[in-house]
Amino acid sequence: MSPNSAPTVLVVLDRIGAPLRSTDQQLLALAHTVAGSPESVHVLTAADADTTRNALDGLHLGSVFCADTDSNAHDAAVPAEQLADLIEHAARQTGATVLLASDAGEVSDALARVAVRLEAGLITHAVGVDAAEAGISVQKSVLAGAYTTRCAAESTVCITVKPNVVAVPETGLPAGTTPKPQPVEVPVSGPRVTVIERSPVESTGRPALTEAAAVVAGGRGLNGDFSLVEQLADALGAAVGASRAAVDAGWTEHAAQVGQTGATVSPQLYVALGISGALQHRAGMQTAQTIVAINKDPDAPIFEIADLGIVGNVTSVVPDLVQRCEKARQ
Predict the structure, then answer these.
(1) In what order do the strands lie in the sheet with 157-161?
(2) Model's pTM, two decimal places?
């Protein structure tokens, strides 16, 4: 990609449906911000043509590619090998100089393969992407969130973006006549990985932890009572998170753990209840836009990064906070 040239962007959406998930909308909004024009924004989905057409209907795009398959991507995951083949085909067809995807394991795996094939750069866990004079400027947090780096990509670059770091315009995504999806048939010579079983995750009715715009997390200070976390999360429409101490104590499932050895989240709002704020936990959440901490220890490290801190016992503060949130939503 030459300096000062407007990039051509390929957005990879692995699992889509109508309406589009917030993370998919964020990727498309970012693509339109970075690209020179709506015609320079192209989309590849791992879904079939009908699902793709319904999900993207009414959006102004340059072209749309989809998997030539009868299975919907939101019903069954596409293996990384096949997804990489699809991405490579769409990238070469469009001449994309920037490939954007969500910061999910399956897509990151596929995009890494594509970066090797295209001799492109690869940047994961991005928290900001901008068009710069020298090419594309990408921000990411490193060293357990202690530093934010910025680098410029002067050639083709593959980027995975964390959820909730891009705001979708209030006016919505650019509207227009959506191009007809182009099915892509990519043969896979002998599956190297065989899926032997699929088990649906039990739904809690709350948003997914890594994609939620708001997260309420509990720690050791709750003394085993996670009901306050769940009540506040439901009042805010938030996901439930936890510190490693809470998970190790068996108070909640491991999937809720936030931190260096758990999930990394970047919500618009992160509420920490009874969490001291050890470095291991901060590494997974300190890129949140707004951090609220409630802890009875005034010297807790979490207050060093909190935008709003409340020194008090969570059992006294949270019930009143839940009532106020519920009243505000009525």
Answers:
(1) 147-153, 135-142, 121-132, 157-161, 98-102, 9-13, 41-45, 63-67, 182-184
(2) 0.80
Q: Please report, as a single letter, which amino acid is at residue 7.
A: P
Per-residue pLDDT reduced to its tens digit, 213-234: 999 999 999 999 899 999 999 9
Note the helical H segments in the chain: 22-34, 49-56, 80-94, 105-118, 227-236, 244-248, 279-282, 314-329
| Structural domain boundaries in the chain | 9-184, 214-329
> Which CATH number does the domain 9-184 belong to among 1.25.40.10, 3.40.710.10, 3.40.50.2000, 3.40.50.620?
3.40.50.620
Fold of 214-329: Rossmann fold (3.40.50)
Is residue 190 very low, low, confident or very high in pLDDT (cuts 50, 70, 90)? low
